[in-house]
Design goal:
Blueprint: E1 2-5, E2 9-12, E3 16-18, E4 25-34, E5 48-64, E6 66-79, E7 82-86, E8 88-89, E9 96-102, E10 105-110, E11 112-115, E12 119-125, E13 133-138, E14 152-156, E15 159-162
Parallel strand pairs: 1-4, 2-4, 3-6, 4-5, 5-6, 5-7, 6-9, 6-10, 7-11, 9-12, 10-13, 12-14, 13-15
Antiparallel strand pairs: 8-9
């Protein structure tokens, strides 16, 4: 297994996060950012299932742009506070789109999950890729006020288990 724990920030600014074969990956920090924060020529590929597990634990997690998780059959994103999703502008500069795509199972634990202002963000399990389940669970912390507006958060999976807080104020 690959285990990485840092005290402050951990940022993986890549559109494709690939499992190291069959090993599990555990990432831990006070703050974790996944995905490209700037538009680039690199595009997210297709998410693929695999035997590996990705476990991200943080105080807060930000998702940026389009991210494909490749080779992971089980993904857990756990934040004590919020998980925010931020889209990036398209070529015309009219849409702030983004997505987190994976295969198998995605478990999201947070005080609340929401897109940032003007973002259109998709959490997706690819069809036909194992159980196809997205689970949203509470972290136990009281959700704070969301300072976001005119945004959209979409969730696509064969099975959606919603027990946490998803928000898209004025979206």
């Amino acid at each position: 297994p690959l285990e990485l724990a840092v005290r402050n920030r951990l940022e993986l600014q890549a559109p494709n996060i690939v499992a190291p074969g069959t090993g599990d990956v555990a990432l831990q920090a006070n703050y974790v950012a996944l995905g490209p924060q700037l538009r680039s020529s690199l595009q997210a590929g297709a998410a693929t299932a695999g035997p590996a597990r990705l476990d991200v634990t943080a105080g807060a997690i930000d998702l940026f742009g389009d991210v494909a998780l490749q080779g992971f059959g089980d993904v857990a994103l756990s934040a004590q506070q919020d998980i925010r999703a931020t889209g990036l502008s398209n070529d015309a500069g009219t849409v702030l789109g983004g997505s987190l795509s994976t295969a198998g199972t995605l478990t999201i634990t947070a005080a609340q999950v929401y897109p940032t202002t003007f973002s259109d963000y998709l959490l997706r399990i690819l069809p036909g890729s194992g159980p196809g389940t997205i689970r949203v669970l509470p972290s136990g912390q009281t959700p704070g006020t969301v300072l976001s507006a005119a945004a959209r958060l979409r969730v696509e999976a064969a099975n959606i288990e919603q027990a946490g807080v998803l928000r898209a104020p004025l979206g």
